[in-house]
Amino acid sequence: MDGMLEAFELLMNFGLPILFLLIAYFIGSWIEGKHFRSIREREAKAHGFPVVSFNTMPDDWNVNSSHMVTGSIVISLDYFKRVIAGLKGLVGGRIKTYEPLLERARREAILRMTEEAQSQGYDAIFNVRLETSRLANARRDGEGVAGVEMLAFGTAVKFASRFANSQ
Q1: Helices and strands per DSSP (H, E), number in the chain
Q2: pLDDT at 145
Q3: What is the value of pTM for the model shown?
Q4: Which of 21-25, 33-37, 160-164 has the lowest mean pLDDT?
Q5: Domains in the chain with CATH codes
Q6: Which residues contact 54 (CB under 8 A, 6 or more apart)?
Q7: Which of 86-100, 118-132, 149-163 shows the lowest per-residue confidence on average (mean pLDDT)?
Q8: Hey, is 8 helix, strand or coil?
Q9: Pseudo-torsion of CA 33, 35, 36, 39, nearest 10°?
Q10: How many whole angstroms separate alpha carbon 113 and alpha carbon 153?
């Protein structure tokens, strides 16, 4: 009977946390994959809409009006990525688990900005900039990261007339 009790305690102490980590990993991977598919589909729809980081407009853009547009997103870190990043933080180096998170945030923020401009009838966006901020956990020590916010902003323009090299 003591052996079964010890085995149960061992399972509860080690097996359950490992099971939760595996579940978090698979659910997080599924959500991330679903989001990337959505991003690819929406990027395909927005293909051909000029979004550039130039400080000034190209000379052949004859602009009628302009407006600032933004797109932002907050993405939470899943528990599995936090654990892996914490382990990697002990030895240093590249934290690969965060790279897809930041890529998703960047692409989604730019898409949201582009979709806002298109919905308002604008023809292009220039002077695009990105800002990132870390959202800390609500723990007392303030350490750790709960997620990241990515903000994309730029100047949307409506053309007075189409330029010679039409889109």
Answers
A1: 4, 3
A2: 61
A3: 0.77
A4: 160-164
A5: 2-159 (3.30.110.70)
A6: 126, 127
A7: 86-100
A8: helix
A9: 160
A10: 7
